[in-house]
Specification:
single chain; seven-stranded mixed beta sheet; binds D-serine
Length: 403
């Protein structure tokens, strides 16, 4: 076997023989995966359907048009949005919105990374600090280890800073939230709104979470999402925007910042959206709606089991992810490694107002989407929760856990 085949085989075995609880990962269907490595990868098509710079785009045009139509049918019930499928990933999708619609020096308001936001929502390490200023809104505590978005603080920050753009969307926020309510507040201060639904797009499309696709001023101006998390599609992203912004978005993607689209990703996205729409199956003989319901139930089961086992839960989950507060004496990096030795793949995560460092924070983030795709049942999640408690509390029987 050559070295890359060897590595692929090892990674295949690693994925097959481990229990993956990373909340941002998932397993697309075989058809989706196959399309990523298909002949669509061979074609260049700078431009958009009907206006390409190279010949040979009869079928790529159809592919891009049909996938866009399906994405809009699934996500947007208002008929007011358009979509660009060429943007390559989630962080570039967000920065594209910043670079296209904001003037240098403009302020961007978001939830900080340490409280559950995302790196690409501006952070002190962002290269975009060269061009923009970032300010944050905050969570507030509403119970022991229970935090929600502080809407009063959200409004205060809007009032004080008058940001040109407000980002609503999170990476480590286990609760649901109301897009309509937050967008309404941002509008009072004339802020543009970017909704980043990367983590929750599978929940939004099945109406298991509020949607930012709302009519007129009530809706977000821009909606970005990655396609590989709860949506269970290929690695990639989509940028939706109100129609009046689409011309600028499209020009900013090509020729503004990218060359040719990756049609293999668009084809794979088409396949996964057909699965969401119920026109093709993932292979587990349940609808995408049922799949998402199972994700929610399984994540809750895992969380409840850990809580019953004596662990503290932060902001009890209403989504596909859960945050566990580790006992103070536990080093989260060492725990993450120990869980990995037993084939349980997680990520350590800062908790709201964490006093520990980002490298060895106080929390563990777990998500149920990946293992639900692989068919783990509610009972399986319960058993996994019990095993994790035994490892975390150092009361495990090594042979039994390995088995
Ligand atoms: N790294 C992903 C997450 O874990 O949320 C997002 O980019």
């Amino acid at each position: 076997m050559n070295p890359v085949s060897q590595l692929t085989s090892s990674e295949f075995d690693r994925q097959k023989n481990s229990l993956n609880l990373i909340a941002s990962e998932n397993y697309p269907s075989k058809k989706t995966l196959d399309l990523l490595g298909s002949i669509w990868s061979n074609k260049y098509g700078e431009g958009y359907p009907g206006k390409r710079y190279y010949a040979g785009n009869e079928f790529t045009d159809k592919l891009e048009i049909e996938t866009s139509e399906l994405a809009l049918k699934l996500f947007d019930k208002t008929g007011e949005y358009g979509v660009n499928l060429q943007v390559l990933s989630g962080s570039p999708a967000n920065s594209l919105v910043y670079m296209t619609f904001l003037d240098p020096g403009a302020k961007i308001l978001s939830l900080s990374l340490s409280q559950g936001g995302h790196l690409s929502h501006m952070h002190s390490t962002s290269v975009f600090n060269k061009f923009f200023e970032h300010v944050n809104y905050n969570l507030k505590q509403v119970g022991e280890n229970d935090y929600v978005i502080d809407l009063q603080d959200f409004e205060n920050q809007l009032n004080e800073h008058r940001p040109a753009l407000t980002v609503i969307g999170f990476s480590a926020y286990p609760k649901g939230f109301d897009f309509a309510e937050m967008i309404k507040i941002a509008r009072k201060y004339d802020s543009l709104v970017l909704a980043d639904i990367s983590h929750i797009s599978g929940l939004v499309v099945t109406q298991n979470h509020s949607t930012p696709f709302l009519a007129g001023e009530s809706g977000a101006d821009f909606v970005t999402t990655t396609t590989h998390k709860t949506l269970r599609g290929p690695r990639g992203a989509m940028v939706f925007a109100k129609e009046k912004y689409m011309d600028n978005i499209n020009k900013a993607v090509f020729p503004g910042s990218q060359g040719g689209p990756h049609f293999n990703k668009i084809a794979a996205l088409y396949q996964s959206l057909l699965e969401v729409d119920g026109r093709d199956g993932y292979g587990d003989e349940i609808s995408f709606d049922e799949y998402i319901k199972n994700v929610l139930e399984n994540t809750k089961t895992l969380e409840t089991t850990m809580q019953k086992g004596g662990l503290k839960i932060v902001s009890p989950t209403e989504t596909h992810l859960s945050l566990i507060k580790l006992p103070d004496e536990i080093d989260s990096l060492e725990l993450q490694k120990k869980l990995e030795e037993f084939g349980i793949i997680t990520n350590r995560n800062p908790l709201p107002f964490d006093k520990k460092s980002a490298w060895r924070p106080s929390g563990l983030r777990v998500g149920g989407a990946g293992l639900t795709s692989r068919g783990l049942s509610k009972d399986g999640f319960r058993k996994l929760g019990q095993i994790m408690v035994s490892i975390i509390t150092n009361e495990y029987d090594e042979t039994a856990v390995k088995k």
